[in-house]
Amino acid sequence: MKLYEYTAHQLHTMLTEKKVSARELAESTLQRVRNLDENIKGYVTVTAEQALAQAKAVDEKIARGEEIAPLAGIPMAIKDNICTTGIKTTCSSKILANFVPPYDATVMQKLQAADGVLIGKTNLDEFAMGSSTENSAFFTTSNPWDLERVPGGSSGGSAAVVAADEAVWALGSDTGGSIRQPAAYCGVVGLKPTYGRVSRYGLIAYASSLDQIGPLTKDVTDCAFVLKAISGHDPKDSTSVNSAAPDYTKALVNDVKGLRIGVPREFFVAGMDEEVRAAVMAGIEALVRQGAVAEEVSLPHTDYAMPAYYVIAPAEASSNLARYDGVSYGYRGEGDDIVAMYKRTRTEGFGAEVKRRILLGTYALSSGYYDAYYLKALKVRTLVKQDYDRAFEKYDVLITPTAPSAAFKIGEKSADPIELYLQDVCTIPINLAGIPGISLPCGYTRSGLPIGMQIIGQAFSEETLLRVAYTFEQNTDFRRKPSLKGV
Amino acid sequence: MKYEIVIGLEVHAELKTNSKIFCGCSTHFGAEQNTNVCPVCLGLPGSLPVLNQRAVEFAIRAGLALNCEIAEFSKFDRKNYYYPDLPKDYQISQYDLPVCKNGYLDIEVNGETKRIGITRIHLEEDAGKLVHPQTITTSNYAYVDYNRTGVPLVEIVSEPDIRTPEEARAYLTKLRSILEYCDVSDCKMEEGSLRCDANISLRPAGADYFGTKAELKNMNSFKAVQKGLEYEAMRQEDVLADGGAIRQETRTWDEARGVTLSMRSKEQAHDYRYFPDPDLVPLLISREQVEEVRTSLPELPDARKDRLVEQDGLSSYDAEVITASRAVADYYDAVKKLVDDPKTIANWIMGDMMKQLNTRGLSITASPVTPVHLAEMIQLLNKGTISGKIAKNVFEEMFVSGKKPAEIVKEQGLVQISDESAIIAIVEQVIAANPQSVADFRAGKEKAIGFLVGQVMKQSKGRANPEMVNKLLKERL
Q: Among residues of chain B, what percentage have pLDDT more than 90?
């Protein structure tokens, strides 16, 4: 096995036992990036120099006999909408193509303190708006299982580099499924934490009431380690929850006896890929064999979640993205007066999907339409949340597909935005409800593409999700390496 | 037709917290451009606001001083509009759930008390400042100074209860005085820490509906507010008298030309697309906190004025002038503690002190004449050591040199002559030298004695005790 193929928790042991150095690990991963990334195109920026310097510092710590953090010396990748001091943070947008933040996101501060080794910043749909990375202003990332297919999105770059062993793990962000859906498409583990569990400070906002940072990893154990490293209260984020994060690694227990699983009927509707349905059902069966109990449940407002999301998220985005006006940073289109400059900057700086959502959101918030759209959508959001509150009175977790199909071909759905939006139909309600969800591989299509299963829990039940996912992983055999078909 | 003017005022006051409303940057005025800034107040991507609880406390304080209800549940909203001094292109403000509402303040016009309602007080962040290399019209570009961005503001909105430009000015004066008293704002219009917009409309006298209003902006002093409103009321009356209709619009006061000019019509008005700021959590204000703030409130201008009238025996007018500014009232109290002579203290403060301060552009806290000095001087006066006339000179000297009054009196030999024999000598001299005046007086011209007194004072270089001079002159005439 090559060094870059290991998981973080395996590598941590190898580092502490001095079987490998952080430098060798970084070099091995950087070599992998050099060999592969022209095909995968997962990285927007590769930070080789920085990675080697960080690795050196870790090696020195080990040499001095100091204890190192679980993620110390482990090569990581960060979605390019998370601010990194002195390193371009572009949101895969022309408007921020040269933006170098003067500060670190809180998660980056935590990871720096934990001696993580940054390999680079990963591609995304512009401003995290999309499900395929096709909306990146720079390039589309390829799915390591089939280069002609999308990796999912918006954290497609992060999912792809983890699947392709171009990083041991990565951070993504999830507003309507942007961690879980690419995790499903790329056959890795992706967790969207409870809203407020991980600080959003330094995450460039798409829709503030929905955005949440989370891990993309090769297995459930790594997921727990990364979540532990990035969680916790942050006084710089008013929406971060003021309670200490538990030690998530303690939740890695192979036991689901008596676990009550709800299977929401509305998530297995007509039009869903039959292979996906079958794989998820088989996944639930596997947990039942381990002692869990499963039964059907109804979440009656599921159908209204997507329309509500496409009012709330664009409304927030229309305001969040107003600041890209060419005045004090980012791209500027010249104009004869201030209004002309604004227009030119935003016309030239934003891509089509971002403009579409800004228009949608501006409309929804306009005087005379607010009640009919934005306020109504907030009410729907409350109803959706109540569906879940009721379900969790009876069930410990809910299990659904992560996406209605496996990865689609590049260009296949780009002509029809609604068709593309439907890729998030299983993940969006979870963001509206503010609850956590984890996606992990539960099978493969006949053509060899990974299928993701989503486990959903009530707010702050990440430990339960990790225990269920861990049990599933321990008793099944769906962790596989991609075929790299087309490389 | 006779019209009635209807005015409502919107006042923005910067709160004097040490740090900004949503970040830790300093609010210090006059710092070098773009030095009091950080990712949060610069609106850099990914930065998030965190509410400064001190600003909330200040808003509650202002609300209580203005007799408002304090909300238990309040929230922040985004007001969306594009302007280069607004780095996020939205302002964090409060839309439908302000911190305070339903208050009032009392003003006095023509000797009568009138109550002006306060609709609401809400918290918001200030914007930055555009700095033009030349004038605003001749500059091809502008710089932006973000130091002021994020300084906490309260917006205080009055009910349309104001009926004359003079009342508007009285309202502002009173409002400034209250905000100053509760120590929440410096209220300096020249530094922009107090700003005022006005809504003004006309209606037939006695009507129970409102006419179409104009919003008036860019009035940079209380006087400008009054003058702008006077002009605008006249303009509207002319339009209506000619059978025209008032357009709903925003107008700007052109101070130099003394006119109001149209800025934008209702159709061009912004749609601010207010919505709750998802980066902030709702603001919950406990009743305990409100009570805590209430107990910490200082004595407010109205109560203080009453005290000066009832306990100190000052006239209502004097008490009003003394209590208009907390600093002046504090100065008065400090002097009064040392010498119990309210009327004399008030006269000195309102007269010579104000005159000296105004010519030098100083506030009373910076006066070289301390309360102790003034008290000593009044004591010298009351003991008869110096005359009232001399005292005026002594006061001026104290103001210039900062010396103690006794020292000045001693150095310049200004002690009043109360020695009868010394005064008699001068009186007799004056009588001998002015036979015509003496004759006039004796013939019944009462006024003639004034000249003779003046002559005695002149010969004594102002030091003769005026009462004794009068008495001794009369005895001898």
A: 71
A42: its two tokens: 């997962």
Task: Give the start-to-end residue ranges of the domains of chain B.
Answer: 3-289, 299-411, 420-476
The residue among A237, A236, A375, A384 whose CA lies nearest residue A312 is A375
pLDDT digits (tens, 9 = 90+) for B24-67: 999 998 899 999 999 999 999 999 999 999 999 999 999 999 99
Burial class (CB in 10 A: 0-12, 13-18, 19+), B229: buried
Comparing alpha-carbon positions, the chain B residue that sits nearest to A328 is B87
Closest residue by Cα to residue A317 from A412, A400, A208, A396: A208
Q: What is the extent of the structural domain holding A100?
A: 3-256+459-475
ipTM value of the model?
0.96
Judge whether B386 and B409 are in contact, CB under 8 Å: yes
The C-alpha of A145 sits at a distance from chain B's nearest C-alpha, in angstroms, of 33
Q: Is residue A414 part of a domain?
A: no
B46 and A319 within 8 Å at the Cβ level: the answer is no
Tell me whether residue A443 is in a domain. no
In-domain check, residue A271: no
pLDDT-wise least confident of A183-192, B356-365, B396-405, B451-460? B451-460
- At residue A270, the pLDDT reads 67
Domain spanning B420-476: which CATH class is it, in words? Answer: mainly alpha
Max intra-chain CA distance, chain B: 95
* Chain A residues inside the 8 Å CB shell of B144: 327-328
DSSP string, A101-126: -SS--HHHHHHHHTT-EEEEEE--SG
**Mean of the pLDDT values across residues B101-124?**
95
**Overall number of domains in chain A:** 1
